[in-house]
Structures are given as C-alpha cells and as structure tokens.
Amino acid sequence: MRDFEEKKSPANKGPSTDIYEEKLRILDRVTSFVAHELKNPFTTINNALYFLQKKIPDQADPIFQKYLHIIEHEINNANRFLSTLLSITRKSPLNPVPSQINEILKETIHQIPISQKVKVTLNLDPLIPISLIDPEQIQIAFSQVVRNAIQAMPEGGELTIQTSWVQKKIEITITDQGEGIDPNHLPHITEAFFTTKPRNIGLGLTITQRIIEAHRGQILFESVLGQGTKCTIVLPHS
C-alpha cells in the first residue's frame, strides 16, 4: 500500500459559504433544465426499446437481446443519476433500506467498464453489518469515486477497494495508482463545477460528498503526485 500521508484533504465546501451556496443554486437550476430536456428523449427511447423487445422473435440472434439489454440498463442508470442529482440539489429525503455495503461495492464494479490494464483488488471485510442506507445513492457515490480512480490510470495500474468495521463505523477506502492530484487542487475537488479535465463539468465528487454527508458520513482524499490517490469514506452504522 502506498504512503498517502504527504497530502490529505477532507472534502470541503469551498472558499466561502456564500460562494458555495450560490454554486449549489446554479447547480439546481442547471439540473432542473437538463432533467426537463432529457425527460422526453428518455421516454421515447424507452418506448422504442419496449417495442423492439416485443418484436424480436425468441429464436433471433442472442446478440440482439444482449445489446437491447445494455441500452435498457444504461437508460435506467441515466434516469437514476438524474433523479439522484435532483434529489440532492433539492435536499430530498433519503430512502433508506437495510443494505450490505460489500454487495453495493461488488455491483458498482460489475457495472463500470474497466480496462484490462487495470487490476481490481477487493479486500472486503465479511464482518461488515447490514446498514440502513439509501443503496441507489450510495452506489452512485461509489461509482463517481471508482470512475475517477480508473480515469487517473490511463496506462493501467491497480485499483484497491477495501472495507473494514472500525469502532462501529464502516470504513471504505478506494485507492488507485494513478497520476495523483495537484496539492493546490486537492482542497477544491468536491466543489461544484471545479474541474481540471476537458469535457468535464465538475459535479461527480460534489454529488458524492453530498450523498455521504446526507448519510451522516465523512469523505477524505489523500494524494501524492505521480503515485496515486486514496479516498476514504466513513459511514456510521445505523
């Protein structure tokens, strides 16, 4: 395991409360607009997909069913993401149900395309208890961190995901061997619209932070340039 004590930063809320709140108001307006614009196309795609699934005969090439299933799965993911984004910006209540963190992490890894150059290591504590959480939102939070970790390793590397049961709290660490984060950028990575990547609007870790905080949890990032980044999420057991 790499030493990440050199640079660490808790997910913060930006340089000032006023600026942070104004960004969240902008985020709410942008999200509402995007959700409205995408609602009709998503409905049309779903209807067309349903029609195709009914018309394809059972003896058809299985590859057709495979790709229709992929389309359905991705549309459902996009709809869930928009719903979660709206609920977060509007501070909608969580929908907690008894859930197992380890299983959510496994499902997250299963759903994300991962290059063959990236080795995924899962060290999941079997003693992690069932917790009362919103599984859809928690999975979105995990997905954002995992996707960032994978993107940080374009040449490949190891992605290590570990869970542990510590002092009646669930601790999840997601560690990559990527390029690391500039120390000047580290305190700002969860700010709305902060990004150093082209074609990225800088909302993924903002969403992650708000989901974790809504569950009364904490999120911490540690990084060393040229060595990698470790994200630690701590959730209370409830």
Radius of gyration: 19 Å
Q: CATH architecture of the largest domain, please?
A: 2-Layer Sandwich
Strand order of the main beta sheet, please?
1-7-8-6-5-3
Give the helix/strand class.
Answer: alpha+beta
Question: How does this structure look, described?
Answer:
The structure is a single chain. The mean pLDDT is 85. The protein folds into two domains: 8-15 and 96-236, Heat Shock Protein 90 (2-Layer Sandwich); 17-89. Strands 1-7-8-6-5-3 form a six-stranded mixed beta sheet, with helices on one face. It has five helices and eight strands; from the N terminus they run βααβαββαββαββ. The protein is globular. Helices cover 45% and strands 20% of the residues. It is α+β, with helices and mostly antiparallel strands. The chain has helices at 17-55, 62-89, 101-111, 135-151, 204-214, and strands at 8-10, 97-99, 118-123, 131-133, 157-166, 169-175, 218-224, 228-236. 27% of the residues are buried.
Summary keywords:
2 domains, 238 residues, 5 helices, 45% helix, 8 strands, alpha+beta, six-stranded mixed β-sheet, globular, two-stranded antiparallel ribbon, Heat Shock Protein 90
Blueprint of the fold:
Blueprint: E1 8-10, H1 17-55, H2 62-89, E2 97-99, H3 101-111, E3 118-123, E4 131-133, H4 135-151, E5 157-166, E6 169-175, H5 204-214, E7 218-224, E8 228-236
Parallel strand pairs: 3-5
Antiparallel strand pairs: 1-7, 2-4, 5-6, 6-8, 7-8
Helix pairs in contact: 1-2, 3-4, 4-5
In short:
The protein has 238 residues and is α+β, with helices and mostly antiparallel strands.
